[in-house]
Amino acid sequence: MQTDNQVIVDGLTFEPYLTRDEIASQVKRVAGEIARDYAGKKPHFLCVLTGAFVFASDLIRETGLNDSNISFIRYKSYEGTSTTGSVKQIIGLTDDIRGKDVVIIEDIVDTGLTACRMIEDLKEQGPASVRFATLLYKPDSSQTGFIPDYTAFEIPPKFIIGYGLDLDGKARNLPDIYVIKEN
Question: What positions carry a catalytic annotation?
Answer without folding.
Answer: 110
